[in-house]
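Input record (one chain):
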Amino acid sequence: MARHHLRHILPSLALALWAAPARAQVNTEALRSDLDTHPRYLAVQASFAGHVGNTNGAVGSAAGFAGARFGRHLLFLKLQGDYAEFSGTTTISSAFAHARYGVRFLPFLFGEAFVQFEENVFQRLALRQLDGVGVRLGVLQLPDLQLFYGSAWMLDYEKLNDDPLPVGTFVGAHWWAQRWSNYVAVSWKLNGRARLSDTLYVQPRFNAFSDVRVLNDSAFVLDIDKRFSAKVECQIHHNNAPPSRVVPTDVDTITSLVLTL
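The corresponding structure, as predicted from the sequence alone:
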């Protein structure tokens, strides 16, 4: 009986530990902090779990991150894909790519530009493309405690999967929108191995502030050695005007082991 229950519990555990769905926002602060430790940084994460028997299915997740600092300049790229299927039913299918460039003008003032592509079946997204440019202010920059505020203009293009039902705020299967992207990010180095971070993103639409997207990402990272780190994250995503049949709020808890090359 115990083995029977385990066969149903383990797929759920695999989803919780490995299959982190891609979202409209990505917390770039967690990626940026890695570059503070490794000016040339390449990390990969991948997993696969297959099940045959009382439970038939598969869970796969893969992610890669590359970044570098060149004097006043910073550049990084993140790619991620997630897929899960049980008993012939797809439960997760998503992918995104995010690239960002930053330049330091003054010790406390930075410029940023970014582009992101995303696909997510369960958010009805055939394609979402985000393009933005803005500034970043270093409010507090101590060796162990940092606080930043960022503000950017963002162009948002979305194309939905085929569906005859209404799409929410907009009419039609695809549209363009301009958003005001804001974030507050704090990071705290507890010691030489452990650090905490929390980032809050708020992205209202310029001509309708009630159409807003919010992301809060809290993370704890523990460096096991020079190559491996363990990370626990809690992400809360909210879209105040989602397409039909898409719930406005998602909460994800993600545990991962990261290999740094």
